[in-house]
């Protein structure tokens, strides 16, 4: 087929599943790619690769519920790009999971993995389910069925899942066991974020929060912000938000506001973070915490603070609330929490945004350590792991900071420049044909 001008047929006509969503997370990601393209030099001819996931698997996950009925859930595993190595990225269980969301999350994994230079492509998975409504037995059956269904794609040298929202070490243990049973041999390296007794790594549970803290410290040094006494607001008090809050509080900062689905709480003197962590463990959320006042959810974004850490879901900081933000530093613990419009508003207000694709890369970095340890069956001390993590995060952040200064671009675009050059250079060297 030729175009009306007689030129070669357009190579960019999009598959239907890529056409629909221009506002959601995938649309947000595409805008980020468009912003990096002018900085890719001759590699820009490969940029379309970044705009199409390499593989998408949609699976039906049927399970028998405790009451004897059969329920069906929709699951996904998307491998966005495998130019630099096997797919790597978490698995999310959430009632709002969509294909578009998993595509975006897998793409951000490609960028993140390249930004910290771990030898992976990007992938992500998920099931549209509210796991809080399932019993433990139902959750196990769901996890095992899903693992078998995506068994076509995953494997220690093919694609390695890990925890994300509402998944944890227990879910990874079931995934590892199911995959191992299906292949007939224990394969610890098929997932990371496992319990330490099953080939997991010391430090993985804390790694994402520790990475958030590490880049926060580096940015504070570079901008003259004193952490001692700095006020911090955190959205999402799960694995990432909870640990990040703990580390900032230990460094002398005051965690003045916290929000999750169960409530928004405020204490101008700083909440007692260990007590709040214990409360969340016992009660499932920050709501009802005695050591703080209740605040209206919509007032959270305008809280007086120096540091804001979105650590929940995508699309939380939008054009509607970005103008209210008073923080000097936004550290994206979550993936995709800021829309492109909001990014511009924050930039115009002089707010420094440490983007997800570097700020929350600590988790996958220690997942990489876990995978390496599993291959060699030789395990490192927690101090060794934390020291290596901090070094990788500091070096990656310093490089990105320099690129941002050089090109006078945001840290997000700078991270995309570093990462997309690595991905596309790998693609170019490998070539296209089998
Ligand atoms: N775990 C990891 O290693 C990594 C995670 N991330 C990203 O960090 C983010 C958080 O993940 P993680 O901490 O693992 O997940 P968790 O499931 O441990 O915690 C999620 C937290 O976010 C809260 N939350 C969810 N939706 C909302 C909402 N709409 N408003 C306010 N709070 C909300 C949850 O509260 P509630 O229970 O009340 O809903 C919970 O406190 C995600 O974007 C994830 O992709 C990034 C890198 C690695
Ligand atoms: O640890 C991993 O492999 C991936 C974690 C993850 O899903 C993420 O960084 O968003």
List keywords for this structure.
16% strand; Glutamate dehydrogenase; Rossmann fold; NAD; alpha/beta; Glu/Leu/Phe/Val_DH_AS; binds NADPH dihydro-nicotinamide-adenine-dinucleotide phosphate; five-stranded mixed beta sheet; binds 2-oxoglutaric acid; disordered N terminus; 434 residues; nucleotide-binding
Please provide a written account of the structure:
One of its GO terms (biological process) is L-glutamate catabolic process. NAD(+) binds at residues 208, 239. Keywords: NAD, Nucleotide-binding, Oxidoreductase. GO terms for molecular function: glutamate dehydrogenase (NAD+) activity; nucleotide binding. Residues 201-431 form the Glutamate/phenylalanine/leucine/valine/L-tryptophan dehydrogenase C-terminal domain. This protein has 434 residues and is an alpha/beta fold. Among the domains are: 54-187, 3-Layer(aba) Sandwich (Rossmann fold), CATH 3.40.50; 205-359, Rossmann fold. Helices cover 40% and strands 16% of the residues. The chain has 12 helices and 12 strands. It has helices at 25-36, 99-115, 136-149, 169-183, 204-223, 239-250, 273-283, 340-348, 356-359, 362-376, 382-407, 411-430; strands spanning 55-64, 70-81, 87-94, 122-128, 159-163, 231-235, 254-260, 263-266, 293-294, 307-310, 329-331, 352-354. The strands form 2 sheets. The protein has a 7-stranded mixed β-sheet, with helices on both faces. A 5-stranded mixed β-sheet has the order 1-2-4-3-5. Helix 2 links the parallel strand 3 (87-94) and strand 4 (122-128). Helix 2 (99-115) packs across helix 12 (411-430), helix 3 crosses helix 4 (169-183) and helix 11 crosses helix 12 (411-430). The longest helix has 26 residues, at 382-407. It is globular, with a radius of gyration of 21 Å. The chain starts with 24 loop residues before the first helix and ends with a helix. NADPH dihydro-nicotinamide-adenine-dinucleotide phosphate (NDP) binds at residues 163-166, 208, 235-241, 259-262, 285, 311-313, 333-335, 360, 363.
């Amino acid at each position: 087929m030729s175009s009306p001008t007689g030129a070669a047929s357009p190579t960019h006509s999009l598959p239907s599943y890529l056409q629909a969503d221009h506002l959601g997370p995938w649309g947000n990601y595409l805008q980020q790619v468009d912003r990096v393209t002018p900085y890719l030099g001759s590699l820009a001819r490969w940029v379309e690769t970044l705009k199409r996931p390499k593989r998408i698997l949609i699976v039906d996950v049927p399970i028998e519920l405790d009451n004897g009925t059969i329920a069906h859930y929709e699951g996904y595993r998307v491998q966005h790009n495998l130019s630099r190595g096997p797919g790597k990225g978490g698995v999310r269980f959430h009632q709002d999971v969509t294909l578009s969301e998993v595509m975006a999350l897998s793409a951000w994994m490609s960028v993140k993995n390249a930004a910290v230079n771990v030898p992976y492509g990007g992938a992500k998975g998920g099931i549209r389910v509210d796991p809080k409504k399932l019993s433990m037995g139902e959750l196990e059956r769901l996890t095992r069925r899903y693992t078998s269904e995506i068994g076509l794609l995953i494997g220690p040298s093919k694609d390695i899942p890990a925890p994300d929202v509402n998944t944890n070490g227990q879910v990874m243990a079931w995934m590892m066991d199911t995959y191992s049973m299906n292949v007939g041999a224990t394969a610890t390296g098929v997932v990371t974020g496992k319990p330490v007794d099953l080939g997991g790594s010391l430090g993985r549970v804390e790694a994402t929060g520790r990475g958030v803290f590490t880049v926060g410290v580096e940015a504070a040094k570079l901008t003259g912000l004193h952490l001692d006494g700095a006020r911090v607001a955190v959205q999402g008090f799960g694995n990432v938000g909870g640990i990040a809050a703990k580390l900032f509080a230990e460094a002398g900062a005051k965690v003045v506001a916290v929000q999750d689905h169960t409530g928004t709480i405020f204490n101008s003197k700083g909440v007692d973070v260990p007590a709040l962590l214990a409360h969340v463990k016992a009660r499932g959320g920050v709501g009802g915490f005695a050591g703080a006042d209740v605040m209206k959810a919509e007032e959270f974004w305008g809280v007086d603070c120096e540091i804001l850490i979105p650590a929940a879901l995508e699309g939380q900081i939008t054009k509607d609330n970005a103008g209210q933000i008073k923080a000097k530093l936004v550290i994206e613990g979550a993936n995709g929490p800021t829309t492109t419009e909001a990014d511009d508003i924050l930039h115009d207000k002089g707010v420094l945004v440490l983007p997800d694709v570097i700020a929350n890369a600590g988790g996958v970095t220690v997942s990489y350590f876990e995978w390496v340890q599993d291959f060699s069956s030789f395990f490192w001390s927690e101090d060794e792991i934390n020291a290596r993590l901090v070094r990788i995060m500091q070096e990656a952040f310093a490089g990105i900071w320099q690129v941002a200064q050089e090109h006078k671009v945001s840290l997000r675009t700078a991270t995309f420049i570093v990462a997309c050059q690595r991905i596309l250079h790998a693609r170019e060297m490998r070539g296209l044909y089998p």
